[in-house]
Amino acid sequence: MINKVKETIFKEELIQLGDKIIVGISGGPDSVCLLHLLWYLQEEYKITVYGAHLNHNFRGIESQLDAHYVSKLCEEFNIICFIKSVDVAQVASIKGISFEEAGRLQRYQFFEEISEKVGANKIAVAHNLNDQAETILMRFLRGTGLEGLTAIPYNRGKIIRPLLNITRAEIEEYCSINNLSPRIDKTNLEPIYHRNKIRLELMPYLMENYNPNIIDTLARTSEILKKDNSYIEAKAREMYKEIKLRETENRIELSIVGINKLHESLKARVLRFATEDLVGKKDVLEYKHINSVLELLENGQTAKKRTLPMGIIVRISYERLIFSVISDFEYDKDFIYELQVNSLEYIEEIDQEIRISLVDKQEINDISRDKYIKCFDYDKVNNRLNIRNRRDGDRFWPLGLTGSKKLKDFFIDLKIDREERDLVPLLCDGDEIMWVVGYRMSEAYKVSSETTRVLMVEFCKEEPIK
């Protein structure tokens, strides 16, 4: 296996002589294997290895034991180890994101902090071939384009993945041979998350009934698609530079004549490049957003616009397609829609849908912790349900607090940009705010032991694919 990893390092140019490498270590088999391999290879590559462990505080004493194990392991290898404890659940609540996403963001932020402190130029993480196959399958089931099916790259910026061509079985065998005794996170053995279900249920079923080599097949398919995608991306980037008329900090203008000459595949990529350059972030646009902009182009009406994620507005001005952030021009702020139970309503101003339904109280235990799905005590609803954006004087009683506060102060506390606040939907009972969608529901409408009727509200907003 060591030779196999060395081949990957050489082929993908992951490590150069003299590199300083931060190794992310959870304490599980994958990261422990990676740490041991790089420790073993440090003389050959003249590298300096550092360990980094973030305690997410998800699993109580088990999390503490993970940190202790990593500390002792690094001590045994004479590797400098950095350990940090973060209440990731609290971070997720404050930012209004999932536990998994909050954990990922905190980990990489921690790795960057250490990189700056020790002058490291690489960050090694332990994704393996099984992770690659599971990611491809997961994205396929959710729906994705060519780039999404290329899955996890061997390197991106500082990040390197030396084990991406190694199976989980090979990793476990390596740990056993070298008496590493890694920690086992029992939650990874339970089908409670989407990825876990694919790993524990779907993948074994496919291997047994359809293709025993499904992991290699998916990974090989990804490599083939990666080459095709790389070529198309390069051509699209050339076209993007040709049709870009103007770029400022808050505005990018493209030639509509130039866009209309492109193949549909190139059009989608050019639109994505524009949003990426504008906000400095990849994967901003989903399929539906791209189609919305293409529809705008097809209609070709000056002054018409579309609202995109991250406060981006796209509009037509004569022969130019203009991408800008909200603060760059005025837009109609106010919207309000009355809602009916057991219905689906489309909110044009934010290009999203909201679904309202009554459910049995027993069903809510199976509802995920998705920040866009919430349950309310329907017996406490006294007026017509509606969805709107903020109004002057709005107050809100956030779940878990002892009293109400100004909605403006609530937004300030969460550091929500002023330009984005008018696009945050509010589920209301008449004038009373039940839910600041994506952030916090009201204490006044929470489900209790006395609740007899449960209202489930789903804000149909898909997160961008990572």
Layout of SSEs?
Layout: H1 2-11, E1 20-24, H2 29-45, E2 48-55, H3 61-76, E3 80-85, H4 88-95, H5 99-118, E4 122-124, H6 129-142, E5 155-156, E6 159-160, H7 168-177, H8 194-209, H9 214-243, E7 244-248, E8 251-255, H10 256-260, H11 264-279, H12 287-299, E9 305-308, E10 312-317, E11 320-325, E12 336-338, E13 343-347, E14 352-359, E15 373-377, E16 385-388, E17 395-396, E18 405-406, H13 407-413, H14 418-421, E19 426-429, E20 432-436, E21 440-441, E22 454-460
Parallel strand pairs: 1-2, 1-4, 2-3, 4-6
Antiparallel strand pairs: 5-6, 7-8, 8-11, 9-10, 10-11, 12-16, 13-14, 14-22, 15-22, 16-19, 17-18, 19-20, 20-21
Quick take:
Helices cover 40% and strands 21% of the residues.
3D structure, described in words:
With 466 residues, the chain is α+β, with helices and mostly antiparallel strands. 40% of the residues lie in helices and 21% in strands. The strands form five sheets. The chain has a six-stranded mixed β-sheet, with helices on both faces. A five-stranded antiparallel β-sheet has the order 7-8-11-10-9. Its EC number is 6.3.4.19.
